[in-house]
Design brief:
By secondary structure, the chain is an alpha+beta fold. It contains three helices and ten strands; from the N terminus they run αααββββββββββ. Helix content is 39%, strand content 28%. Bound molecules: FE2/S2 (inorganic) cluster.
């Protein structure tokens, strides 16, 4: 037969267990759940980084490998482009334009010569940029450098020169023609 003192001990002990169950049920500090959500977060973050990396590396390669035929067809469909008002381009400046669907550039050099190039890098197809302060055409993707007067590949990975267009400056416009 249990004494009064024993019952109160049992009652107290039962209440204590219920309280700790309640605390565990509502506690946001549950180490098991935290571990799972941390793991999920890391999985998602690593997956996202892998996808971004694959896209950054794969897209230029995809464009380069899959576009030569389409590119040639699109380029040959356009014979010339007339850039109205481009004859006013300042010396040392560049004008970006589209030759068909592709980016191209017209440069008016400080010595008053004019050149126009296809602005698609011959390495993996990034768009190149003219840097007037260095008088070079540079591809930011992998550091390719081209001569800004001839389009020749000077350094870095580009395997061949930029395609050069013919130019006619007359009647308030510059006409760029595919050679
Ligand atoms: S795409 Fe690689 S150097 Fe231009």
């Amino acid at each position: 037969m249990a004494s009064v003192g024993d019952e109160s001990c049992q009652t107290y002990s039962g209440a204590s267990e219920r309280m700790s169950e309640e605390i565990m049920a509502v506690s946001p500090e549950d180490p098991g759940e935290n571990e799972i959500s941390r793991l999920n977060f890391i999985k998602v973050a690593v997956g996202g980084m892998c996808l971004a990396y694959a896209a950054a590396v794969g897209y230029p390669i995809y464009r380069y490998l899959n576009s030569p035929v389409q590119r040639e067809a699109a380029l040959s469909a356009v014979k010339d482009v007339t850039l109205a008002g481009a004859d006013k381009l300042e010396k040392g400046a560049v004008l970006l334009f589209k030759f068909g669907p592709y980016p191209s550039m017209l440069i008016h050099h400080k010595d008053d010569s004019w050149v126009a190039f296809d602005a698609v890098c011959t390495h993996l197809g990034c768009t190149v940029q003219y840097h007037p302060e260095q008088d070079k055409i540079v591809c930011a993707c992998h550091g390719g450098v081209y001569d800004s007067h001839t389009g020749a590949n000077v350094s870095g990975p580009p395997p061949k020169p930029l395609t050069r267009f013919q130019i006619k400056v007359a009647n308030g416009a510059v006409t760029v023609t595919r050679a």
